[in-house]
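Extended Data, panel c. Modelled sequence:
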Amino acid sequence: MKRVATYTFLLTLIFQLQIEKAEAQPVSDSLLLNSPIYREKLHLFTDRSLYASGEIIHFRLHNKSHDLLKENSWSTVLYLELIGNHNIPVAQGKYQLDPKGATGQLLIPDTVSTGAYHLRAYTKWMRNFDASDYFHLPLTVVNPQKINRSEMPKFDSTQAAITNPLTSHEVVSCSLERVSYGNREKVTLQINLEDTASLKKGYCVSVIKKGYLDLDFSYTPHGDIEDQIKTGEVLFYPETRGISLSGRAIRDSDSTPMAYTPVHITLLGPESDYFGTVTDKFGRIQFSIPSVTSPTELLITSSSKSGEVIDLILQDEFSQDFTMPSFTPSNVLNIRQSLVNEMGTYSQVAKPFITSGADVTSTEEKESEYSFYGTPEFRYKTADYIEIPNLEEFIFELVPKVQMEKQNRQKYFSVIDDAGPISEFAPLILLDFVPIPYVEAILSLAPEQIEYIDIINTIYIRGSTNYGGIISIVSKKGDLAGIKLPEGSSILTFNPLNKMEEMKFIDYDHQKFSKRIPDLRTTLHWSAQNKFLSGRQNTIEFFTSDVSGEFIAVIRGMTKKGTIVQGTCEFTVK
């Protein structure tokens, strides 16, 4: 026994050291990578199982990965997709993931057809393994304008959903003051916990029309600890510092991988930024995107000293691997036809009265005074000087910290510090934050096209690259002053993490609502991160809507061992 205990301790210590090392670069040892410690596991709850098109899916995700993996800043981005027929995603989102999990919302497009869908949740690291390891959850969406009975999924009685047994004793229970309420009446829900010692922090509470949530279903992934990494090597690194993009650089003429080649990334628009990286010996690139608050365009380009055209091939942002989930497609459309019809009616009647709760933002772009390099040592505004024919003469006459040199009939810039020209590294030359590999392209520009020139005359480190200073030229129109982008450049739309929005519910005690405007909510309450205390009175208050019938309150959580615990109580609205 002592030998076994010692071996287990040493193995865990090795895993700990390897994971800490992997924060900078993931390990390549296949034995370690295929161990259970490196296998991420997720479990997701939603507020309902039945939705109307145009509604929002609210979710709470638990991170069930090994503690050593979670404690060492592994994956921090969650990918969530709503998948329809033929494995076509109809909605996608990216969310902040922490050791406990994630919460958020996903909007169902109002154009989707009535039918069976499923949510799938995964991280970029999980893409190294089979897609059956992703978490899958079946949902039903009703679009009253698009109900095609012939396309409804047929129930196969030979299949059955996989159920995850609850705890043998009642860990979570709830109670109500009454069993019957009227429309638009306050309800007080009492939640009692027997013992919280074995539970993870955070419970989700959903109060919905009975039948709108499948309580008997949970999903167990196909994969197990025996499964190997699909290709035998790591293709997708864990996102430890936010959203990352990866791919490879190849020579355009013969598709040869370009090793140790600089790659430049520019965020265009009001949140302009620049950062660079260098390909590895196989021509692969991996870079993290800084915090961006709104969708923006991203320009990626590369250059070689020999002047060869380089193609940059990026991996898909979302997984393109699919597997058939090991559960029966949603049977709600057949066995709960009355709920489907009811949902369609409610969504049609309520639609004219629904207003968007999104904040209105100005379309005017706000330009920050300074960019990623902070306050420049020197800024030269062209409007402050006399008219000069071109940018070459402007820099020669008025920018003393930049020196022009000529070698092999090509012109080069170098930046001058207190000791003279910085010769150790080439400067970073930017036009509207886009790197310009050849200075001849900008020398003939008219100064009237340029707003200002910033100079950083010290060695500057950005990402994994050292630069002999920065020469940043900003045009008045932000259009590169008409210069063509370098060959091989790509522009793509970059979407940031989805914003967390608090779900607000009607409060008839403090808000006035006309009885002529129908309140057709079938979700009366949803909260995703409740921290209930054992031995205390935990209460949640909400109001009923104009929808009558049977309702159910569901409280769900998860033990440290990954077992689902659940408590329910029912009431009627008349």
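Helices lie at 2-22, 30-33, 67-71, 332-335, 337-350, 391-398, 440-443. This feature is highlighted in the accompanying rendering.
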